[in-house]
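Backbone-to-sequence.
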């Protein structure tokens, strides 16, 4: 079958688009870098793609708040096409700044009114956190995480990564529905280890969530920065696998589209 087509969305300040596109290409997809204005002006249509990726960076310099301006563009200029994209059974991933965009546009965890019910705010440490972390994969419905080990390592690089919710009822709902995808943890998988294992102070150590379908994923760590084993700082002394642990996330998406769309 034809290679699944991926729209890697970019704008001023995006800086992880090429790495994200390469990760999908390495997984068997056909990646296209698409500026937000090209979608707004109908030079490209979301319906022409099967996967949408919103990569990391500092969109619009993170003015106002991280990801907020791009989130407003998504919500007020592209929401209908975005909703149709999801309703068609297609896949979306938001990484770091892309995760911030998804929660601030109301598309994660998602309701029909696009209310923003969660956010990502300034790290408890008050500084930019840039290092490798351990993540525990929870029992979840997310199609992006199939076959991943219980504990993986990915790098983070953010100043506003603390995940918060408006009320504890929503947090319980996310947990009960299997929408909490990743939690920060120590190397043994203990998700209550605290700082520095949880680099930002996120509630319940949450590093990533998905929507109710399991097809829209947002996470703060960067899987596109661990697609080759030599990218990990311990690759030599610990004898890491020949494949970086982040690559499986992209492969899962490509395999899902091939089987379902």
């Amino acid at each position: 079958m034809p290679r699944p087509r991926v729209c890697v969305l970019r704008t001023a300040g995006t800086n992880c688009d090429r790495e994200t596109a390469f990760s999908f290409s390495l997984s068997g997809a056909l990646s296209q870098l698409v500026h937000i204005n090209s979608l707004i002006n109908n030079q490209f249509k979301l319906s022409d793609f099967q996967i949408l990726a919103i990569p990391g960076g500092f969109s619009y310099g993170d003015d106002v708040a991280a990801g907020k301006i791009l989130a407003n563009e998504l919500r007020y200029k592209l929401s209908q096409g975005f909703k149709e994209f999801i309703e068609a059974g297609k896949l979306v991933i938001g990484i770091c700044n892309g995760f911030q965009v998804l929660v601030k546009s109301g598309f994660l965890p998602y309701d029909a009114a696009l209310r923003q019910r969660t956010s990502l705010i300034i790290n408890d440490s008050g500084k930019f956190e840039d290092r490798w972390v351990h993540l525990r994969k929870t029992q979840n419905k997310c199609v992006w995480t199939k076959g991943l080990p219980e504990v993986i390592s990915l790098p983070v690089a953010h100043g506003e990564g603390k995940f918060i919710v408006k009320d504890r009822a929503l947090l319980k709902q996310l947990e009960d529905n299997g929408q909490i995808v990743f939690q920060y943890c120590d190397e043994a998988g203990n998700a209550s280890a605290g700082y520095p294992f949880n680099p930002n102070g996120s509630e319940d150590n949450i590093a990533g969530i998905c929507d109710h379908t399991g097809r829209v994923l947002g996470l703060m760590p960067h899987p596109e920065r661990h697609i080759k084993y030599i990218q990990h700082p311990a690759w030599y002394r610990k004898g890491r696998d020949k494949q970086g642990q982040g690559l499986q996330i992209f492969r899962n998406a490509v395999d899902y589209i091939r089987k379902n769309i």
